[in-house]
Amino acid sequence: MTETYAFDPDDTADDELLSTGELELADRAALRRIQGLSTELEDITEVEYRRLRLERVVLVGVWTEGSAADSDASMAELARLAETAGSHVLEGLIQRRDRPDPATYVGSGKVREVRDVVVATGADTVICDGELSSGQLRNLEDRLKVKVVDRTALILDIFAQHAQSKEGKAQVELAQLQCLLPRLRGWGSAMSRQAGGRAGGATGGVGLRGPGETKLETDRRRIHKRISKLRKEIAAMSVVRDTKRGRRVANDVPNVAIVGYTNAGKSSLLNAITSAGVLVEDALFATLDPTTRRSQTPDGLPYTLTDTVGFVRHLPHQIVEAFRSTLEEAADADLLLHVVDGSDARPEWQVSAVREVLGQIGGELDRSMPAELVVVNKIDAADEVALARLRNLLPGAMFVSAHTGDGVAALREAVASRLPAPNLLVEVLVPYTRGELVARVHAEGEVLAEDHTPEGTALKARVRGDLAGALEAFAVDGTPA
């Protein structure tokens, strides 16, 4: 059956009503590959999107520790990663071993079984639930006769698809090159020398005699040069991020960072609190570029919310290193909103995975992480038994639904109670001509006493550093402002 799409000029007017995230989601859906979609046009007057066939994959995992349920959950997550990357999962196989086989990851017997499944299903790719060495990749591809991809390369491929900003694309490319460098392989002409032979010959001449340089060495050198260039570009782009962060710090604007497992609903929560309109999709690593939006507490005090990149179990260390400047947003925040998917079958896995990555970030930056407020999201999709279990596992956590709005108001109040309060005590006499300063004290500080005198408004209040500096000229009785 052929699917056709007719162009409607009136649809362009609706684009003005869509948020930025909705437009990005529409663009992403328009490029999605649909399995079995015909490319034959039945009517040339109609427009059809021609899409490629989905990649057909077989999943392979090694169960080394934990229970059978843990192994099944790991394979289910790998299947979701494969589907997000644009694949159609045909079959999944698990091998029980004490440790992965150093030559073929699953052992020679299991490799023959995987080969039979590949032939029977017509798969063109095998995805392994682990990080493979170059030798394991080569041996598996030689025996399976299809492309082999490991978990790290799969996650990096998803990142490459979803990166939107210039900084995000550079970070993904850096992580991919760091992953590729130790896995470079050479065979045939790739191991040949650049030059050699007798003078005047077709393959060499004066100055070209000697061992030469193999194609593999040339590739490795070019990758090192590209990595060095990308690091310089990312360092230059991070200056802009540091400038914005420095401005918030100088103005004493508290910052709240939203962290959590991928697809836990971080972007949805940001939209629910601030109406940011960022992209929301039921997919792993749907958003990579950090988004910062301004919000305020119920008392009117301003603060910023930053949506960070999602985490996952065994997040490749190349990602952590490449996205270092982005992940620093979490380390520099005043409060962490740790979002957990309440509808997930194993939410404690999510919590431990996120805290492991946060500990890794804190260790690399040599600093302690900010205070954490756990937020269990998607309570509308979770059953009561699971929620009762989470209340026992995560005491003090907030339970919300970003989709329906349940618990969001209580979450705003909880965030406000945990933000750093204004801590500079000032006593000032503000002239009536500077009423905007009085308004700022009421909006951004905590007024302890107020009196209207013939000379102006006498205030005793607690304020932050930037406002205290603006009030310094009106301090009374030598009180520091």
UniProtKB/TrEMBL annotation:
Keywords carried by this UniProt record: Cytoplasm, GTP-binding, Magnesium, Metal-binding, Nucleotide-binding
Positions of the Hflx-type G domain: 254-423
CDD domains: HflX (cd01878)
Keyword Nucleotide-binding: yes
A Pfam cross-reference name: GTP-bdg_N
Residue ranges of the region described as Disordered: 192-215
Domain of life: Bacteria
Bias-annotated ranges (Gly residues): 197-210
Compartments where located: Cytoplasm
UniProt-listed PROSITE patterns: G_HFLX
Function: GTPase that associates with the 50S ribosomal subunit and may have a role during protein synthesis or ribosome biogenesis.
UniProt similarity note: Belongs to the TRAFAC class OBG-HflX-like GTPase superfamily. HflX GTPase family.
Quaternary context: Monomer. Associates with the 50S ribosomal subunit.
Protein name: GTPase HflX
Originating species: Kutzneria chonburiensis
